[in-house]
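In response to reviewer comment 3 from the previous cycle, which asked for concrete evidence that the modeling workflow produces usable outputs, we include below a single protein chain processed end to end. The sequence was submitted unchanged, and the resulting structure tokens are shown without manual editing.
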Amino acid sequence: MAVKGLTPQLAERGKIKIGDKGEVKTSQGGKQFSQPRKLDHFQITTLQRDAAGRLLPDTALMARLKPEGGKINEIPVRLLFDDVDLNFQTRYACYRGNRCWCSGDGEAAQRLAGQNGKYQEVPCPCERIGPYYNSQDRCKILGTLQVLIEGTDRIGGVHKFRTTSWNTVNAILSSLALVKTITGGPLAGIPLWMVLSPKTVTVPTSGQNMVVFVVSLEYRGPESQLAELGYGIARKRLEHRVKMGQIEAEARRMLVPPHAEPMEEQAETVAEFFPDGAVEEGQLGPEGEPEAETPSPEPGDGEVPGAVTQAEQFEEASPTSVPEQKPGEQKEAGLF
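The workflow returned the following structure tokens.
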């Protein structure tokens, strides 16, 4: 018999990242943080950290995936469930300090009320979502993809990939919906590739074009082969009396929203996606709102701390990418 009230989670073997910690900056409150640095390739990490708190790369696994060495731009993966939401959980999320202050599904959200650690339901979305919101506590979409990486020598956990990019969230959801349509329903067990590729997008606040790197999922083979594969999986489940509905119902019990994750996981998300937007714990007022403070530009910086730059609208922007310019068009000063 199991201990009552415990909700086991899928074990995590490591993380898949397209960014790491870069230049160290100082916030308005004098706290130092590492500005996220975008990568144009995948990096697979373990859950161990070095003395500086950085996740250690899984060099053995990456060497198996690409023996010849070099950058990894595609990873062979398989999914655990047929349900899109179980494979790729998406939420709106806002972080303050080292914890999730508010998370919602587009209709209702759970928001931290005061300092007692309790959450209350509020309408979702709110004014914090969108490219024109320039305060520190900006809300972003947060997607978490759980996959099994082919080439691992042990089964017992998943690798997680997180993103706050609208482009990547849309690409992964679109990929899963298309594959599911062709297979007739099955997604679990289908051999897929997790692919990182460049895409030209338009920055909504300026109308400029820029190149970003977007993650998607794809099947390598003709449509007829994918359809036959889906049919074969469904037939085997029927023969072996596999009740996928019951399996997925149990898996839904294991899903937790961002605000219910362990504190160390929340802190990791802050460090990767909300470093300069997270208000320090000491700056929070009695109701969990930030204390009033007038931001002032750093000398020579030319940018108000906490303001969202145009490049930050796209989480998977290349570290070397620049806006595409039309002939005769000049780049706006101070953006990149």
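The chain has one domain: 22-287+315-321. We consider this sufficient to address the reviewer's concern, and the full set will be provided in the supplementary archive.
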